[in-house]
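Narrative of activities, Objective 1.

The group set out to show that a structural description can be obtained from nothing but a protein's sequence at a throughput compatible with the screening campaign. Below is one input-output pair from the validation batch, recorded exactly as produced.
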Amino acid sequence: KKEYRFVSKLLQEFLDSKSIGINDIDLIVAEKFQGSLLNSKDETRKRGEKRVNNIVGFLSKIFERAVNLGLIETNYFSKTSLVRFRINKKTTKRNFTVDELGLLFSGQHGIEKEILDYFRFKLHVGLRMEEFFRLNENSFITETIDGQAYNCVIIDTAKGKYSSESKRVIVLHENIKDLHNYKWVKAIKEQYPTIKSFNKKANGCIKKVISDKKVSDHRLRGNFAKKLVEYDQINNISDSIVNVADELGHNTNKNNRKNLEEYNDLVRGMMGYNLSDALDIYAQSQLLKPKLRDIKAFDEYSGIFKYLDIPSNKIPHIKSNDNNS
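Output recorded for this entry:
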C-alpha cells in the first residue's frame, strides 16, 4: 500500500507540473512521465532503469483496476502500451575460488569464529540460510553403519514452490566434526535472530575479504554442489549423471531441469531437491553408505581452515546474551 501511494503521488506531481488532468493521460503523457522518473524530484540523483520499471509497474496495476471498474478506457502504463526499459537479467554469480576460500578462512580479517564456523559448515553440507535457522537440538544425530558410528545432521528442507516439506540427512565430514552440536548454532541465532539480520552479517563478512559482488554467502552452496558432482563423476559412485538436486533441497521443474542435468541423483538428495514427504529421514545404511563415499570430496579442503589454529583469545567471537546482560 505504501508503494502504491508513493507512485500515485509521483504521477500526480508530474501531472500538476504539466497542468494535465488524470483523464487526459495518453501514451505520450505516459512516455514523458516514464522519462521524467529517471531523475529524482530535485534532479540531484538519477533513478535506475530497473527502479523506473518497478514504479511504472505499480501504476499499471492501479490503472488496470480503474479500467476494470469502468473509470477509464485504456491503461497506458501496461506493458502492451508502454515499452519498459530493457534490463540485463543475466546473473554473473559464481562460486568461490580455492584461493578465495583460503582467504576467507585465514582468520586474518576480523571475522568472528562463529561466523567462520557457519561458513565452514555450509561449505560441507550445502544448506540454505533458511534451513540453517530451522536447525535445533534434535537436528544433530549419530547413526551406526556396519558397526561404526557417524555424525549426521537432519536438515529440514525449505519449502518449495508448492509448499512441499521434507527432510534430508547429511553425513558430516571430519572437517566439521567439531560442529556436530547445536551450541554454536544457538549462539548465532541468539545474536542474529532473523534471516535478514544474519544474511546482512554473513555477506558483510564476505565483503571484508572479497570485494567481488559476484560471490556471496549463498554461493558456498554452489561450491558444495560442484565439489560433490566432480568427485562423483570421477569415481562413478552414482548410477547415473542426470540429476544434484536432492541434497540441495530444490524442487525441479521444466524451467530449471536443464541446469540440473549435470547433477546426479545422489547429489540431488544431499542438496535437497525433489525430496518426497515419504522419504525415510532416518539414516538407513543403504542411503548413507554412498553419501559416506561422496563426502570424501571435501578431503581437499582439509588444510584451508587456518583460523582453527588461532588461539581462542586471539580471534573475535560474537557477543553472547550472557555478555550483554
